DNA sequence: TTGCATGTTCCGGA
DNA sequence: GTCCGGAACATGCA
């Protein structure tokens, strides 16, 4: 279910367990998650290398070695786990990085995204060339400039990874609900005050979610009720509205978020 | 059995 | 060119 906070959690898994560990080898049990590389190329590039401090940009996780970098994207169902012992492999463990202290496992059922191999930092830059600024790093001024003059719907803009990297469907709904902005309003139509509050809420929600390592279904948040049929708005108690556009579900409160 | 799922990409139409 | 919705990708779950 990865949005920025989940990927940040996976980054911590790498940072805690894999940094400085030597890679013994890479096992690929399903090539369906490899993008532009092969099991042999992955193993050849990584065996003997040591992971350096991992980085995250938006929903991308970058596991560098000083040489090649493993570039991971988790789609909707991916995750990264550390297994120190000999826990049996899960059927969805598609790629296993065998390190000298244990295993790092890329687990993913739907295989909507996967693992790429960047030979050097230039190749990493090329992979991320179309990705916008990270939602946790973007400054207030840059965020403001992004929205000002944009004619697109605010939700479409917030979830467009080439505009702003890291927010997904749940986070976008959560933020707009908190700020009281209807998801279909043109981004450029938001007031100075709405833009300011949206930025502040984005930072607040992201910080809390990063601490949890996921987008938490928390009481008092929209996330806490969005999966319940007929659940009332946690703020005003009124009925929530639900629609689908382009395959994405949208939940909002027509009272708190007028058109 | 059918519909739905927190992601991205590609395509056609307005 | 811009924006939007739908389909596709592959799989599990209610």
How would you explain this protein's 3D organization?
By secondary structure, the chain is α+β, with helices and mostly antiparallel strands. The protein contains seven helices and ten strands. It folds into two domains: 4-127, Alpha-Beta Barrel (N-terminal domain of MutM-like DNA repair proteins), CATH 3.20.190.10; 140-252, Orthogonal Bundle (Helicase, Ruva Protein, domain 3). The strands form three sheets. The protein has a four-stranded antiparallel β-sheet with strand order 1-6-7-5. The protein has a four-stranded antiparallel β-sheet with strand order 2-3-4-8. Helix 1 (4-17) packs parallel to helix 7, helix 4 crosses helix 7 and helix 6 packs across helix 7. The chain binds a DNA duplex (14 and 14 nucleotides) through residues 1-3, 6, 32, 59, 73-78, 92, 109-113, 151-153, 156, 159, 161, 168-171, 214-215, 223, 244-249.
What are its keywords?
Helicase, Ruva Protein, domain 3; class I DNA-(apurinic or apyrimidinic site) endonuclease activity; 4-stranded antiparallel β-sheet; 7 helices; zinc; DNA-binding; metal-binding; N-terminal domain of MutM-like DNA repair proteins; 259 residues; 2 domains; alpha+beta; multifunctional enzyme
């Amino acid at each position: 279910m990865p949005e920025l906070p989940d990927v940040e959690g996976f980054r911590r898994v790498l940072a805690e367990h894999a940094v400085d560990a030597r890679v013994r080898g890479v096992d690929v049990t399903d090539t369906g998650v490899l993008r532009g590389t092969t099991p042999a190329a992955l193993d050849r590039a990584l065996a003997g290398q040591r992971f350096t401090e991992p980085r995250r940009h938006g929903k991308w996780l970058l596991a560098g070695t000083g040489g090649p970098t493993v570039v991971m994207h988790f789609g909707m169902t991916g995750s990264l786990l550390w297994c120190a012992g000999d826990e049996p492999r899960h059927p969805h463990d598609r790629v296993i990085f065998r390190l000298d202290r244990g295993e790092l496992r890329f687990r993913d059922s739907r295989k909507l995204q996967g693992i790429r191999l960047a030979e050097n930092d230039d190749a990493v830059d090329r992979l991320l060339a179309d990705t916008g600024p990270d939602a946790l790093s973007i400054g207030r001024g840059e965020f403001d400039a992004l929205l000002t003059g944009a004619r697109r719907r605010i939700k479409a803009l917030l979830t467009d990874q080439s505009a702003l990297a890291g927010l997904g469907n749940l986070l976008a709904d959560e933020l707009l609900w908190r700020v009281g902005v209807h998801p279909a309003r043109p981004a450029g139509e938001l007031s100075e005050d709405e833009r300011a509050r949206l930025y502040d809420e984005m930072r607040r929600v992201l910080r809390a979610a990063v601490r949890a390592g996921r987008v938490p279904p928390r009481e008092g948040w929209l996330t806490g009720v969005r999966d319940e049929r007929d659940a009332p708005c946690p703020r005003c108690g009124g009925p929530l509205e639900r629609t689908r556009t382009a395959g994405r579900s949208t939940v909002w409160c027509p009272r708190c978020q007028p058109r």
